[in-house]
Amino acid sequence: MKSDCVLIAGGGIGGLVLALTLHEIGVPCILFESVTDLRPLGVGINLQPNAVRELDDLGIGESALDSVGVPAREWALIGLNGKDIYSEARGKLAGYRWHQYAVHRGEFHMLLHRHAVERLGADAIRLGHRVTGYEIQPDGSVLATVARADGSTITQEGALLIGADGIHSAIRAQMHPDQPPIRWGGTIMWRGTCRAKPMRTGSSFVGLGTDRHRVVVYPISAPDADGLATINWIAEQTYDADHDWSKTGWFRAVPLSEFAHEFADFVYDGLDLPALLAQSATAYENPMIDRDPIPSWVDGPVALMGDAAHPMYPTGSNGASQAIMDARILGRQFLTGGVNAASLAAFNAELCGPVGQLALRNRGAGPFGLLRLVDERCGGQFDSIDDVVPEAERMAFMQAYKQAAGFARDTLNAAPRTVPLGVKLPVTEVCDGAPA
């Protein structure tokens, strides 16, 4: 009898949440991750309430998330003149049943990895293994080709293969060999952290500037006894089409002198960006890139999820959240239809089109599109924001994004659990594969 083992290519946030979900519902899996030594890399990311809910359902609750981040209290946009364009409470303060969290991406990743090793066992998590391709077998199973860090290659059979291997996914490249190249929208981001006093509520996510030239600042830790928190900052500049983005790096460490002058004028009451930058030990450069949506995430017993399926600009702060939702919806589909290609097809039918449209919405600056409206209508200078973008228009703009991204408050609060509590699938056998 064919094994129910699911193979996962990629041990990032989405891949690890999928592994934890499969363990929850009793489905064996093997996760392959190319990195040989996991370290807490990266800076700040946001977890929206829909994703925080799923983590809580997995037994990764507030106390665990408090160890790697802080609940967000406010989301705000500020104009070039330092005046508020829009602000709202977030998480439980906004009536959600769950917080929104701002976390250190690397520490959150390590938290998920620890839980995966504890629950699934170390043999199920294969570091130094990269899935490079797949072959669909006559019986409907899949044979994955795996390159190991020592230069050798092995194959591994499974019922299904899930490509959670990121924007440069080898699984996606095989599934869609004629896909367009990675798309750059013209924006370069510089990211870093420093110790400073948080703004406004003490846990506010603040975006300031225009959609072509802006900064985002928010804390990813609670303040210490001196009132200082770890502050995550993102400085963004959009260039003309002739700028050679390919010479930039992906999380390339760069000196502040390469870009700080672009933001010398970002000094306001409560925010002195040049001073924040100067306190940062390291800055990282990233091009803001994505890929065009594809017509399907599925090829029989093979499916894509997370950035492999729908890489998107970080303007909506929901890339990691959507990867978590992908994993949980896959788990629900398996409970409904079994560990088979039909469940992958149902997953594809539910998410591929809508999430592809969400990625395109993020190209239009996502919720930061309000900054574009203000810039277009008044050049960023105003006495009363209501005279530029009326309150009803601002509220409708934000609600439309939340609905598209899956975290509209009333809908989320009323929704049943994605993965029913305590339900497990009967399995035919455990995964067959020699541990690394």
Layout of helices and strands:
Elements: E1 6-9, H1 13-24, E2 29-33, E3 44-47, H2 49-57, H3 62-66, E4 69-71, E5 74-78, E6 84-89, E7 101-104, H4 105-120, E8 125-127, E9 129-136, E10 142-148, E11 153-158, E12 160-163, H5 170-175, E13 183-196, E14 204-209, E15 213-219, E16 229-238, E17 252-254, E18 267-268, E19 271-272, H6 273-278, E20 283-290, E21 298-299, E22 302-304, H7 306-309, H8 319-337, H9 341-363, H10 369-378, H11 391-405, H12 409-414
Parallel strand pairs: 1-2, 1-12, 2-8, 5-14, 12-22
Antiparallel strand pairs: 3-7, 4-7, 5-6, 9-10, 10-11, 13-16, 13-20, 14-15, 15-16, 17-20, 18-19, 21-22
Helix pairs in contact: 1-4, 1-8, 2-8, 8-9
Task: Summarize this structure briefly.
With 436 residues, this protein is of the alpha+beta class. The protein has helices at residues 13-24, 49-57, 62-66, 105-120, 170-175, 273-278, 306-309, 319-337, 341-363, 369-378, 391-405, 409-414; strands at residues 6-9, 29-33, 44-47, 69-71, 74-78, 84-89, 101-104, 125-127, 129-136, 142-148, 153-158, 160-163, 183-196, 204-209, 213-219, 229-238, 252-254, 267-268, 271-272, 283-290, 298-299, 302-304.
Fraction of residues in β-strands: 25-35%
- The largest sheet has its strands arranged as 6-5-14-15-16-13-20-17
Distance from N terminus to C terminus (CA atoms, Å) equals 25 Å
Total strands: the figure is: 22
Give the helix tally.
Answer: 12
C-alpha Rg (nearest Å): 22 Å
| Chain-averaged pLDDT | 91
What structural category characterises the helix and strand content? alpha+beta
Helix coverage percent = 25-40%
Biggest beta-sheet profile = 8 strands, mixed
Shape: globular
Low-confidence stretches: none
